[in-house]
Amino acid sequence: MLTIIIECRDNEAELAQTLSALVPGAVEGVVREVVVLDHGSRDGSARVADAAGCRFLTSWDMKDVVRAARGDWLLLLEPGARPMTGWVDAIVDHVSVSAGPARFTGSRNHRRPFLKRFGRRVSPLEQGYLVSKRQAAAAVRTGMSLSDIAKGTKTFSLVAEIVPAWAIRAMRAQLVAG
C-alpha cells in the first residue's frame, strides 16, 4: 500500500530515528517498502538503511524511483522526521476516503519559538507529504528532488502529528552543548 521515500546525505542518526518510527507501519502491513535516496553520504547511512531492510540508491532518476515504487501511495519524509502515534491509522483512513495529497499535523510539543516562525522558509517536507503514486508520476520530472514534488500543492491534513526533522537536530544540539 505505501512506499516511503527519504533523501539523505550524511544523516545516519536522523535516518535511524525516522526508520524506527516507521516500524508500526511495517508491522501493520501498511509499509511495503522504504527507499533511501543517498546524495554521497560518508557516514553509516548505508549500513542503517541496509539493517532496516531499505532499498538504498546512490544513483537514480526520480521518475524511475516513482515508477518502481511498490506501493500505490508514497510518503515522502525528511531524515529525522518522526511520525507520531496513530500515523498508520491516519494514513489508512485518508487513502480510503480521499484521492488527494496530505500532510501530517505539526507536533504541538515541537514548535519553533514564536519569533523564529516569521521570515523563514518552511521545507515542503517538514510535515511529510503523502501522495498517490499516480499523482506523483504525473508531476515528477527528471532531476527533481522530493521537495520539488511536494512544493505548491494543496493538501489535506492528517489527524496524526509529526515531529519535524529540525526538532530532532535542535534536541541533539542541546544534548551536545549541555
TrEMBL record:
Entry keyword Metal-binding: no
Top-rank lineage group of the source organism: Bacteria
InterPro entries named among the record's database cross-references: Nucleotide-diphossugar_trans
GO cellular component assignments: plasma membrane
Coiled-coil intervals: none
SUPFAM superfamilies: Nucleotide-diphospho-sugar transferases (SSF53448)
Keyword DNA damage assigned: no
Single GO molecular function: glycosyltransferase activity
PANTHER family: GLYCOSYLTRANSFERASE (PTHR43646), GLYCOSYLTRANSFERASE 2-LIKE DOMAIN-CONTAINING PROTEIN (PTHR43646:SF2)
Protein's UniProt name: Glycosyl transferase
